[in-house]
Structures are given as structure tokens and as C-alpha cells.
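ESCALATION

Customer reports they have been waiting on this structure for their group meeting. Please prioritize. Original submission:
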Amino acid sequence: MNGRDGAAVWGQDFLFAVESETTATVAIDHQPPVPMTNIPGTKYWYRLMTLRLGTTHNYNYFADGKSLGTYDVGGYNPDSYPLPGVAPGVAPGVAKGTLSAMKTLRSRIYPGMSSNYWVYVNAGADLTSGAPLMVWQDGETIVGNQDLLRLRLQIVSDNLVAKKRIPPMVHVLIQPGSGGEATGTRMRSILYDTVSDRYSRYLLEEVLPEVEKTYKIRQDGYSRAIAGASSGAICAFNVAWYQPEQFSRVLSHIGSYVALQWHAEQGLDGGYIVSQKVRWDAKKNLRVWLSDGMDDQEAGAGSWPLNNILLANSLKVKGYDFHFRFGEGMHAIAQGAMDLPESLAWLWRDYDPAKTRQEYQMDEAEKARPVFRVKISNREAW
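Update from on-call: job pushed to the front of the queue and completed.
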């Protein structure tokens, strides 16, 4: 729980913890700070609170009147908790999937870069004929305790498989690479924020062939999804955009559709161009779930909330099968984690393993709704 992810949730119990040399307090949902309790003999402070479920909560740690960091945490929904498992002599329960050991891959498309990845396979996945596939960026956050504190992908996917709301599948959890052409050691922004087909080629020509040495996966884009948060979200969208016959389902949380890798001298547009590409180019056969929040960040690279709204409206006017959830959260995974049971079920709804293609159509209820409009809520109009 170190750093900004200093909150753990179980039911309505929210445990907040932070490291501080001096007395720490925590402000929840922008209310006045309340005291935290010191663990004797340590620099750790904690507070256990009962909070409402089904929404996100903001927390801000303070010491000596100065903020130690703020973030959001989600009040998880029931399918984000382990349900009864399979046991002899009782009704069928939730069979747990299996997580591979970490594997490392060196790249040719990104010379000098190496990446770690894991594979999580839901129980019942058809590894003989080929299983559906879902690729997750920032895969190191979906293993071990990090997954429990954030998405809870393993729990959620197992529960939804048991309820037959998604197919059992192979999940590839890939970590951003290190080494290569990055100025520092991390390649994350170069990999994820660059608007080109380079990362999609990396997945299709290097990562998935390695995965397929062990796991048989479906080759049709109808049976493949790709997901990510922040820079990982624009990465996921770009992969499907450039390779719609390989990935037709996209899950985008707090997407960084901004100019983080805008290099005019190289002929590279920034992520802000994505929404305009959707409007300009011929419609592609994609199904897209977007989510963001009004308190997402504003920075030199652009506006995260406004660019997510622009992308949602572009998908709307072009008639895409999409869903946009716009809450109040900041640049955090909390809303995406809270929504994961719903977003995964929506993304894979009506999946039929006998098919290899489906022409996605905008839902009739969405057709009747207007485009999204912006209203300023924190300042006077003039």
C-alpha cells in the first residue's frame, strides 16, 4: 500500500495508510482532514473507515499541513470479490484461473528493449481449438497484491466466466519494456503514447507468437480484446485502430489522448489526433468502452477529460458501438476498477464461439441519446 495506492478495500471497510515522519491526517471526499493512528515503532499511519459502495472516493494525506499525495479508490461491486469456489458435493462454484510465471521477451521492433509478461488463463478456456484473447497493458499491476488493490481482474474475470457473462479466455498481461531508445530506462510513453502501428506490430509479430508457443489462442479479431489505462488506454485503442481485424474490442480507462508523444519533426501526431481520425476515416468494426472523470488531469500535453469527451462524441457521430462513462474521478484507476464487472460483460456481450466476425452496431438506446455536452461546474459562466 506504499505510495499513492495507499488504500485497501474489503466490503465497506476502507483502510487508509501512509508513511510519514510526523503526525498524519487524511481528508476523504474533500472533507476536513481527520486523525490517523500511528503503528508504534514505525513511520506508518492508518485509519479504518466505513464508506459507501458503488462510487469512487478521493483521499488526500497530510503531514504538517502539506499534502503527501492524493488519489481515488473505488467502492467495489459484488463481482469484484471472490465468490464460493468449486468443492466436491456442492453446487458448482467459481473455478479459479491460473497465472503463469513471469516471462521476459527481448524485442527486435524496439531494439535493445526487454519486457516482462504474465499469462492468466480462466478455468475452462479452450486451449485445444483456441481460446479468446485479451491483452492488458501495464500487466505488472494485474498480478499479486497490485491486482487486489486495483483492477481485481483475476477475481472479476473468474466470477464473470462462472456466471457465463464472458467467455473463459487467455489474458496476456504485458509490462512496459525497459532499455531501448528511451532516454531513461522506461519505454512506457514511447510504446504507449506514440500514434502509429509500431506497438501493434510488436504485439502481433513478437509478443503473441511467444505466447502461442504455450497457449493456443483464437486468430479472429472478433475473439480478441485489448485494454489499458492512461497511456495504456490510448495504446489499446491505437492497436485496434491500426489492426481492427486482429482486435475488435477495446477497454479504455482514463485514456491519455493528448500530445505526450507529439513529434512534428518525425511526422508523428500526438494522441489528440485520435478523435479526429475517428471522424475523418472510414468507420472500423470496433466495440469500445471508454471511461474518464471530470477531475482527470490538465497538463502541458493537453486535457485528459476534454479529449476523452471528444473521442466519445467522435464515436457517437460515426455510429460506433461504444459506451462512455464520465464520472467525477481524477487520473486514477478507481472508476475503471469499480466498473470492471460491467465493462467486461458489456464488451463481450453476445459473444458466440461459433462465429469469427460480427458487425458491431450502435445500441438502439444510444442512438436515441444526444452527443455529450460540456457544462462548467466549478466557475461562473462569466
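Sent to customer with the following note: The domain at 3-74 is CATH 2.60.40.10 (Immunoglobulin-like).
Escalation resolved.
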